């Protein structure tokens, strides 16, 4: 009822009378007769209107922008970005002399001191294992390994990664379709298998207590991991853009480090957090995930990983790119406080995001919404679905990306905020590094998890060394010098003419059999291993398994091996070979 009466009063209201206008008690009486309207000039009124409109305009400019409960506004202003640089970008190879080769670049990252440590620990581990064998002897490990042999072993692994046969023994096969002479000439299969069995990186005398929840789960490879992380930064200065992502090291054995990732191409394996230069894929830092920390985390796993991996670049105004596993509003703020900008996709359920990122009208392809809080932008862009972004390294500017259009059967430009373009261009650094590592990797099957991490570091060192070589050496062996060429040349330098094979005895010259010396041709047993029967070899006889027919017996005069009961009597009869049945 009250509202209806008020509406009726409003309908019959005709204005205030002069007597109805109250006068402030503290206001001085005016000498102006307000009834004398002729004393008021219209020009004065217009001037007052202009001044009043100007003051209203100033009020609108100074009025605070409406924000939601988290402080986000739908009106954006330019983002303040400190330029990156100036500094020298790329390889730092002052330690190299004139005309460095592929091995010199590799040893910048994989230190020769690590080779010496591997030699020491491998020999120690071999002695610990052999002492438990019968008589404390291993016929295929009669002498300790050396630095030259370990380097040759790694060279063999590189060649195996290039040829990639199903079984190790195939590289030593006598079948021309399988055997790899470059591997066969370096060492025997048995010696290779023993090196593979005994190779070791850490001293087992200092193994951590398995009952200690805070033990180092990566003790077996800790020195190798630390060496790589240090040398990767020591010899390369990254460009402005750095991507952070996860990589998987395939492994199906038993280990607490093994994880199952059903949506990943590599579903079983160990997770490695990586930071890589966006342009080249140079691996800058990495960290093997060992599970939840015993002391917990304040801001979440993703936040801590990004802060640790990017800490060497704080204050240099780098731009980081990472996906929605890591991103949060808190992370963006913390990075900005360290002088580091970032761009990332973000999950819509993260705390502190604009309310409008969840509660908004349905967008069509190419449409977007942008919100701002201080120096951070939050964007929603519709591609095939809504994609959310957080960024501190760009302002809200219009851009476009190419997308496939089914109706036009062509790639067409789709409008987008500038953050989408930046993310597409610079997020692929870790993927590039993974792609290079997967081409000719040196992984060998094993039930020990640390062998796979050793191969991960070894391949990462090769790939990074190739990037250093490619950017440093101008006079390359080939016009288009690819990673495959670098690996082949590096394998040659690592092997360096080394061979652990015993030198073969010179071939024994056959003596002509004639009637004058038939009587002195006697059957004897040769010392040493069996050799192929010369008669069977000429007749191309083979065993049921396809191997050459061998015998320990032969002629004492001719110094040739013969089958004792069949071929040697024929030899005594001096029967021509082509007549032997």
UniProtKB/TrEMBL annotation:
UniProt-listed InterPro entries: PGBD
Start and end residues of each stretch annotated as Disordered: 1-64
PiggyBac transposable element-derived protein domain location: 104-466
Biased composition (Low complexity): 35-45
PANTHER family on file: PIGGYBAC TRANSPOSABLE ELEMENT-DERIVED PROTEIN 4 (PTHR46599), PIGGYBAC TRANSPOSABLE ELEMENT-DERIVED PROTEIN 4-LIKE (PTHR46599:SF2)
Official protein name in the record: PiggyBac transposable element-derived protein domain-containing protein
UniProt organism field: Littorina saxatilis
């Amino acid at each position: 009822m009250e509202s209806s009466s008020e509406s009726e009063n409003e309908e019959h209201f005709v204005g205030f009378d002069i007597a109805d206008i109250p006068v402030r008690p503290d206001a001085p009486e005016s000498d102006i007769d307000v009834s004398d309207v002729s004393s008021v000039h219209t020009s004065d009124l217009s001037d007052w209107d202009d001044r009043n409109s100007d003051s209203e305009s100033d009020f609108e400019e100074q009025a605070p922008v409406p924000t939601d409960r988290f402080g986000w506004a739908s009106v954006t202003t330019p983002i303040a970005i400190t330029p990156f640089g100036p500094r020298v970008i790329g390889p730092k190879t002052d330690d190299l002399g004139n005309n460095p080769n592929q091995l010199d670049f590799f040893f910048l990252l994989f230190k020769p001191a690590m080779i010496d440590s591997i030699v020491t620990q491998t020999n120690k581990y071999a002695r610990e294992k052999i002492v438990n064998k019968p008589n404390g002897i291993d016929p295929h490990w009669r002498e300790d390994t050396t630095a030259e042999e370990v380097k040759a072993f790694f060279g063999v692994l590189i060649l195996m990664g290039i040829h990639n046969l199903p079984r190790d023994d195939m590289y030593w096969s006598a079948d021309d379709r399988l055997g790899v002479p470059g591997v066969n000439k370096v060492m025997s299969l048995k010696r290779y298998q023993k090196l593979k069995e005994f190779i070791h990186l850490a001293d087992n005398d200092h193994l951590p207590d398995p009952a200690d929840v805070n033990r180092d789960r990566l003790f077996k490879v800790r020195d190798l991991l630390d060496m790589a992380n240090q040398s990767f930064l020591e010899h390369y200065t990254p460009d402005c853009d750095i991507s952070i992502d996860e990589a998987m090291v395939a492994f199906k054995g038993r280990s607490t480090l093994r994880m199952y990732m059903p949506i990943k191409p590599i579903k079983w394996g160990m997770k490695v957090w990586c930071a890589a230069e966006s342009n080249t894929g140079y691996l800058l830092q990495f960290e093997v995930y060992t599970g939840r920390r015993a002391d917990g985390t304040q801001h979440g796993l993703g936040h801590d990983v990004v802060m640790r991996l990017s800490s060497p670049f704080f204050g240099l105004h780098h731009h980081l790119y990472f996906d929605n596993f890591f991103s949060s509003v808190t992370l963006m703020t913390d990075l900005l406080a360290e002088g580091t900008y970032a761009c990332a996709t973000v999950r819509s359920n993260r705390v502190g995001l604009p309310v409008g990122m969840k509660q908004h009208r349905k967008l069509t392809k190419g449409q977007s919404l942008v919100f701002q809080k201080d120096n951070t932008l939050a964007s929603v862009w519709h591609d095939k679905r809504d994609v959310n972004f957080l960024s501190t390294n760009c302002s809200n500017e219009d851009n476009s990306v190419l997308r496939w259009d089914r109706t036009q059967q062509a790639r067409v430009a789709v409008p987008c905020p500038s953050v989408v373009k930046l993310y597409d261009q610079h997020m692929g650094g870790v993927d590039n590094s993974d792609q290079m590592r997967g081409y000719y990797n040196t992984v060998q099957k094993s039930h020990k998890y640390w062998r796979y991490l050793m191969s991960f570091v070894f391949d990462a060192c090769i790939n990074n060394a190739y990037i250093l070589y490619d950017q440093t050496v101008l006079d390359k062996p080939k016009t288009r010098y690819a990673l495959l060429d670098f690996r082949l040349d590096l394998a040659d330098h690592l092997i360096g003419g080394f061979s652990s094979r015993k030198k073969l005895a010179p071939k024994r010259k056959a003596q002509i059999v004639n009637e004058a010396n038939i009587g002195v041709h006697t059957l004897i047993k040769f010392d040493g291993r069996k050799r192929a029967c010369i008669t069977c070899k000429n007749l191309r006889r083979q065993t049921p398994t396809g191997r050459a027919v061998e015998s320990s017996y032969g002629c004492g005069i001719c110094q040739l091996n013969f089958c004792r009961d069949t071929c040697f009597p024929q030899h005594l009869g001096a029967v021509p070979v082509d007549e032997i049945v």
